[in-house]
Amino acid sequence: MNKYLIILSNFAYITSKPSTMRNYIFIFLISGLLILNACQRNPKNVQVVDFENTTESQSRNLADEPGKTLKVAVSAILSPKETYDSYEQIFRYISKKLDRDIEFIQRKTYQEINQMLENGSLDFAFICSGAYIELNPDNGVELLAIPVSNNKPLYQAYIIVPERSDANTFKDLKNKSFAYTDPISNTGHLYALNRINELNENLEDFFASTIFTHGHDISIQMVAKGLVEGATIDGLVFDYLKAKEPERVKDIKIIEKSQYFGIPPVVVTNRLDKQSQQQIRDIFLQIHEDTAARKLINGLLIDRFIEGKDEDYNSIRQMKASLP
After folding, report:
1. Residue 204 contacts by C-beta under 8 Å, 6 or more apart in sequence?
2. How many whole angstroms separate alpha carbon 202 and alpha carbon 213?
3. What is this structure's pTM?
4. What three-state secondary structure class fits 71?
5. Can you tell me the distance from the alpha carbon of 151 to that of 12, in angstroms, rounded to the nearest whole number?
6. 141-176 pLDDT, tens per residue?
7. Residue 143 to residues 185, 208, 227, 248, 278, Cα–Cα distance (Å)
8. Domain covering 3-35+157-258 assigned CATH 3.40.190.10 in the classification
9. Nearest CA-CA partner of 226 in 313, 167, 303
10. The domain made up of 41-150+264-321 is a member of CATH 3.40.190.10
């Protein structure tokens, strides 16, 4: 079976009340398979690893000596191809600066990436803010750097609906179909749960049906195509698509933006020695000083990277703690 076929055949699942939406989603995902299958690429010094074929024992066999392969992951904020296309050049740059190959690993869920971080199967990773607060601080994972976008190390959740929708507030989405991104996503799940709770509604049956898409861009596309009546998504992803591919969001309206949260960070594990950790941190903190590299991160709407603080994520922890 083709690699991308494996990836997307398990890419989304629907919960709650049954509806004919299942049929539409099946058609949509099959279309996505054909597109991804036609577009895969594989750079020489950045190895892409299939979701299903990396084991903990294989990961641990790579010693942390100079020149050995670094194992890197990106949580599925975007669909697999979008994630790969977005980060490939950054990993090429880091690989060249360190003179070390990079093995780029993807997994379907944020929790799978968290597990790999905590068991020492990864060196560093780009993860979601919601996933960050779920990490056990005793398992050797710490902040490496955080991006600054639009002059802020912060981001928001957007609640979106089709342009033609009569919904203008979050409350208007009651008894409608809705897309989440990942169970431990902040902007893609937790924020919407918090809003339901603020309305004193039941978290389980506020929406008529729900789906976890495991990609903010997929949630956006499902709303644009009318496959769901609303979604909660990462505002950074929406803004990126609006800037780079505006046709993908032209049929969408934003009915709510959240307060600002600590932005999705880059984290590092103690699988790497301290010297290597600092070398990688320095690359991130200085990347905007390199003209060519600055173009790479600016292309992702990132101004630069800075050192983050764990307390920047306390508002997300507090929001989670407020849920029943």
Report:
1. 16
2. 22
3. 0.81
4. strand
5. 34
6. 999 999 999 999 999 999 999 999 999 999 999 999
7. 18, 38, 37, 33, 12
8. yes
9. 167
10. yes
